[in-house]
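Quick one: co-fold with 2-hydroxyethylsulfonic acid.
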Amino acid sequence: MKKTVLITGATSGIGKATAQLLAQNNFNIVLCGRREERLYLLQKELSTHTNVHTLQFDVRDKKAVFDAIESLPAAFSTIEILINNAGNAHGLDPIQNGDLDDWDAMIDINVKGLLYVSKAIIPKMIAQKAGHIINIGSTAAKEVYLNGNVYCGTKHAVDAITKGMQIDLNAHGIRVGAIHPGMVATEFSEVRFKGDTEKAANVYKGFDPLVAQDIADVIHFVITRPYHVNIADLVITPTAQASPTIVHKTL
Ligand code: NDP
Ligand code: 8X3
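Sure, here it is.
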């Protein structure tokens, strides 16, 4: 029987590539995101492979999160796998120049949003006596870099929360792990630099960055291990990247 996977941030980048790969590999998919048109088009594309349901909500909106999960039709309401992927960096400024709205966005989306979605789904997994939660962290969860202050703080929080989930859900037989990508060429830097596409493109020049499909492949591997195997913590970087700031560029 096909398992159902719910993916937040499925309208772009890592989330979208994961939805595309899992749809081709025998999973039912619940696509989540704010951009309705993108959800609609992706649902249309993936429906040729599998059963797809969309939920349009902002992870910052507590009520919208719980209402959306509650609204799932019976065919999609047993979530076997949750991929907490929605998130972004907003700004790249020294702490003294940080924009309060950027800080709110990162803490509210990357940390609180992940918690709200998890809180809406974990009781169902406990009742099912099975489930798998994958939180998308970052190399920024492992090391802090210049001007990364609050973004790194949110991803360090994701790392700690993942461990906390693993410990607390251990007795319930639920698998929990985090995947920590390094630099992936997605819309991430466009969001970080508020639509400055030239600045965003420069981030990935002079080396081969990861692409979203690379992380989708890893997610697929992690969720297709036998149930007694839990992959708790993975860091994946481009070969050219040795740390958040050590990147071998040929430019
Ligand atoms: P993208 O910008 O391409 O995708 C971000 C996704 O998050 C979009 O689908 C967006 O959907 C969703 N999202 C953002 N804000 C909200 C919100 N308030 N409510 C609901 N959904 C939201 O970036 P990536 O694919 O690169 O990022 C995915 C994850 O990977 C993030 O957690 C990011 O921190 C992490 N990551 C990325 C790395 C990179 O180098 N790209 C490296 C390490 C980690 P929509 O706007 O439609 O709501
Ligand atoms: C994204 C990684 O180093 O581009 O989480 O900020 S980085």
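If it helps, The first strand starts at residue 3 and ends at 7.
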